[in-house]
Amino acid sequence: MQESTPERREQQRVFLVRLTTFIYLLLIFEGALRKWALPSLSGPLTLVRDPFVLFLYFRAAGSGWWPRSWGMNCMLLLIGVLSMIGVYYVGIGRTDVVTLMWGLRTYMVPIPFPFIIGSVFKREDLERFVRITLLLAIPIAGLTYVQFKSPASSWINQVSANGKGVFTVADGVVRTTGTFSFTGGQSCFVGCLVALACGAWFQKGHHRLMRFRWLLACTAGVLSNLAVSGSRGAFLMSAAMFLASILATFIGGKLDITLKQLVIGMAILSLTGWFMVYVVPDTYRTIALRFAVAAKSESLEDRVMSSFGSDAFSILERPDLPSLGTGIGSTAVNLFGPRRIPGTFMSTASFEGEAGRLLAEGGPVFGPLLIIIRIFIAIYLCVRTFGYVRRKGDMLPFMCSIFLLPVITIGQVIGNNTIAGFTWIFAGICLANWDMPDTEAGEVLAARVS
After folding, report:
1. C-alpha closest to that of 233 among 416, 98, 403
2. Which residue, 152, 175, 274, is CA-closest to 229?
3. What is the DSSP string of 235-297?
């Protein structure tokens, strides 16, 4: 057995960081493989990240980097109980093995991922992760602009092998998908870009991520992606994150906003408005129309409730809902299509929101518990990362948690493979240690200034 020296242990940590970064890039470009490069393999490519995630677990366990977390163990224990219920359902013919395996993949397999990220990522790795994400906004902005200008029938707006599934905002204006195979992935990507850009602009001193001109270019890419997204949810999420960043600067008490930063911020917002009104006026008119129509048809409270799932509160009242739920994976339309499950509940129920799926699969016993756990996790990450704002004026980890707040609470984490990927990865970013020793910080600052 090879001796585990500090040098060897550091090599293993770096390998795990690089493998995690590769998985993250695969998450972003997986859709491009599915809809353009290998459209005939679109279904199997849904699982393209899974072997690398399992290999990551194998290497982490074998190199001593497997996380020791009571939170992770409690989550695994709960999903283990749900898995036993699924095995019981398979035994009595209520569900099938494929559905159970899909449920395990959705619920259990991703749980260790954020905890491994939290244990192996250092400050320099986290900053590199943010830089990579922001730099990707530049080329993807060019792609989404071409998608926006192209008709829905164009190959660049293709989202599936058969050419179906293209979404439009109104009057033929396409909802851009970027490198993803569905609009939800691009909306999630835009959300994380806005969060990281807001955090990057408030960094100072040795926490500064990149040179000023590159930060300007990345910010332009972020705002361009947002402007042509056609997603009302992305605009609302971006506005909420911008307001959260402003509030955190005053509540945290450790951030010094200079006049230069205020002028630059106002200039960026003004240029964004000019870009939407004069460069892409179609998206401005359609988004404004969508907001106006939505304001007449539903209140903000109704909007939140519909995102959470208007069917959620009626699920538990149905007499045909099994007391232990329908089993994990049973509500998903997965790689092999919708599962055929005996009983009247699955044949008549519809699941518009994430809460409805959780209540159906977990039943009246475990369903509410799953929802409460997700809300607790979202709040915990916000509280934890806000500590960096209070102590060191470091906004980036807090903005990552603000991005995750609506995604974890009402996002389709078990219903959408891409959204789940962003959720688990950014949860790991929030769990990581963003602190940096003063001596190391000085060396990094000197290297970046020189």
Report:
1. 403
2. 175
3. HHHHHHHHHHHHHHHHHH------HHHHHHHHHHHHHHHHIIIIISHHHHHHHHHHHHHHHHH
This prediction has a pTM of 0.89
The answer to whether 212 and 204 are in contact (CB under 8 A) is no
Q: What gap in Å lies between CA 65 and CA 12, rounded to an integer?
A: 8
Dihedral sign (CA 383, 384, 385, 390): positive
pLDDT in tens, the chain (450 residues): 455 688 899 999 999 999 999 999 999 999 999 999 998 888 889 899 999 999 999 999 999 999 999 999 999 999 999 999 999 999 998 888 988 999 999 999 999 999 999 999 999 999 999 999 999 999 999 999 999 888 888 889 887 655 556 777 766 778 899 999 888 899 999 999 999 998 888 876 556 788 888 998 999 899 899 988 888 888 888 888 888 887 887 776 655 555 556 666 667 767 777 776 666 676 667 777 666 666 665 555 555 555 555 556 678 778 888 888 889 988 875 455 555 455 545 544 556 678 888 988 999 989 999 999 999 999 999 999 999 988 887 889 999 999 999 999 988 898 889 999 999 999 999 999 988 554 444 344 334 333
Are the C-beta atoms of 35 and 146 separated by less than 8 Å? no
Q: List phi, psi (to 5°) of 208.
A: -65, 135
